[in-house]
Amino acid sequence: MNQILEKTIFEYSRPGRVAAAQCPPAADAALVASAKATIPQALQRRDAPLLPQASELDVVRHFTRLSQLNFSIDTNFYPLGSCTMKYNPKACNQYAMLPEFLGRHPLAPASQGQGFLSCMYELQEMLKEVTGMKAVSLNPMAGAHGEFAGVAMIRAYHRSRGDLARNEIIVPEAAHGTNPATATMCGCIVKEIPVDAEGDVDLDALAKVLGPNTAGIMLTNPSTLGVFERKIEQVAKMVHEAGGLLYYDGANLNAILGKVRPGDMGFDVIHMNLHKTFSTPHGGGGPGAGAVGVSARLEPFLPVPVVSREGDHYRWLSEADRPLSIGRLSAFMGNAGVLLRAYVYMRMLGREGMSRVGEFATLNANYLLARLQAAGFDLAYPTRRASHEFIITLKRQAKELNVTAMDVAKRLLDYGFHAPTTYFPLLVPECLLIEPTETESKETLDAFVEAMVAILAEAETDAEKVKGAPYTMPVRRLDDVRAAKQLDLTWKPVDSAA
Amino acid sequence: MSQVPAELKYAKSHEWVRVLSDGRVEIGITDHAQSALGDLVFVDIPEVGRELAAGEACAVVESVKAASDVYTPIAGRVVESNAELATAPEQVNQDCYGSGWLLRLEPASADELAGLLSAEAYTELLAAQGN
Fold first, then answer.
1. A92-349 — its CATH code?
2. pLDDT tens digits for A340-382?
3. Domains of chain B, residue spans
4. Is residue A151 a contact partner of residue A218, using CB atoms and an 8 Å limit?
5. Cβ contact B41–A485 (<8 Å)
6. Is A57 exposed, middle or buried (0-12, 13-18, 19+ CB in 10 A)?
7. Do A484 and B64 touch (CB under 8 A)?
8. Which fold has domain A357-484?
């Protein structure tokens, strides 16, 4: 299956073909000459770079066609569990794109960027307030990056006290895969513990692994099972008494926004996926923003720079102000454009709006859950109320009809819905993790239920039809095994030898 | 219904153990495990000579769905790892009790084998889990 959906822009290239109207005016020859004089001869490029030469029309068609291959939140309902694919209001984009923000150089002195710094300061303050933490750093540029910062701070804290044996991080089996990966990257040993039949952490198993080597525990609450960890206060007490710290994975923060604060649950450090909860665009690899918040005892270790306010003046705190900082995690201060979008989003919501996010995210999830259950789908945790997401298991359908979760996911595409998360979390067989978010209307949720019901009927009468899906997408069922084994993303221009 | 050969011993975490004629043991994952994981795309096997404690994570099996740890059911020293899986992880899916074996151990003690599940007990475990 080597169907070409759209050629690369290089394949449209013909020598000398340009869009004259789009060309910038030629640079001043004297300026170019003086600039060249500052670059050693040996480092100067001799050949022109291999850039495509195409007409304006070819370029417009190429990128328009590429965008039409995309399945996105702007085109379709996207209930991808644990990813919080909510609508990104265009106003956030609009304000972050103000020329004064766009034109600011990251190395410009703080005195010339007081407006931008004040936005970042207020963003830090709002994130502190909504999570109940003592201090925030906006540095990390993705969720996993924030996790890395968080666990690095936990390690730095123990080390600063001379408590060198603490190198074990406890992770429940329902955790995000990034949690054990983060702990390992920070040089820790991962201790996995089970959850009980209702999805709460197994406290006996926790007690067994706690000890003088415990650095901390990483938890997502609500968990990836779509349920709130009800024993969180007890977990916090046990871990703190053992000398460990609590890490909050903010992946599911949307469910509790404005309602419960991780700081009040006893967490010492938290990362927030601004690109999920605070509605900056994501999917397809970012850019993200994984701001971290900490309790008082971890504040000295926060990554720099952090914005501080002194009177009516804002400035960046650096290593000089924070000698115990774990350091810098990005070239400047994080993904400025993403942080600005999150800032505008939070300002638009306000305090009241933020609790409505949590309320409607939860209401929408529970509405979908109730309707799908009534339609004959099996819930993974039927005794529990959903948080902002929930799991259905198609184990019965896989056994009786030979139709798997992946088959249903692919068929949903034909009905115009992005598939929910499949086969995660792993401990629920044949599962779909469904997260509608607060931004969807009842009509959209109802249409999704209707599609699921129609697919279930197809599975019962014509399983092959479901197993052959999708039929209406730019590509049919892909060979994901071959893609994983023989990944080849290189492309050579036809006349590169010339 | 997944296959559970009668002559092997099993662990709750879905590994099987075969006692070879020289007293060494061969370890792999069960038919149920490979079927739940789906098509494997990568297998990480332990280095020869590594000492393993019972229940220690000793290998990683990665499918298009997920990566999963494999735990050794008994303690011992790794004497051989199935290097062919590096280029042909699909052997675990095709023949999990044969060419898809993962590692061979010099067991620390023969007594541990008695603590493992029989084929019958493992079949019951699968049934209890609804498989």
1. 3.40.640.10
2. 999 999 999 999 999 999 999 999 999 999 999 999 999 999 9
3. 14-110
4. yes
5. yes
6. exposed
7. yes
8. Aspartate Aminotransferase, domain 1 (3.90.1150)
